[in-house]
Amino acid sequence: MSSSRRGASDRIWADLREQITSGRLAPKTALPSTAELARHYGVATETARLAVTRLKEEGLVSGRTGAGVYVRSRPPLRRLGIDRYDKAKWRDADLVAFAADRVASGRPWKPGDQTQTVRRLPAPPDVAAALGVPEGADVYERARLIRENDEPTHTLTSYYRPDHVEGTRLTEDTAGPAGPGGGFRVLYEQGLEPAWIDEDLRARMPTPEEATTLQLPPGEPVVELHRTTFTADHTAVEYAVGVHAASRFAWSYRFPLPDSTDRP
Question: Pfam families given for it (predicted)?
Answer without folding.
Answer: GntR (PF00392), UTRA (PF07702)
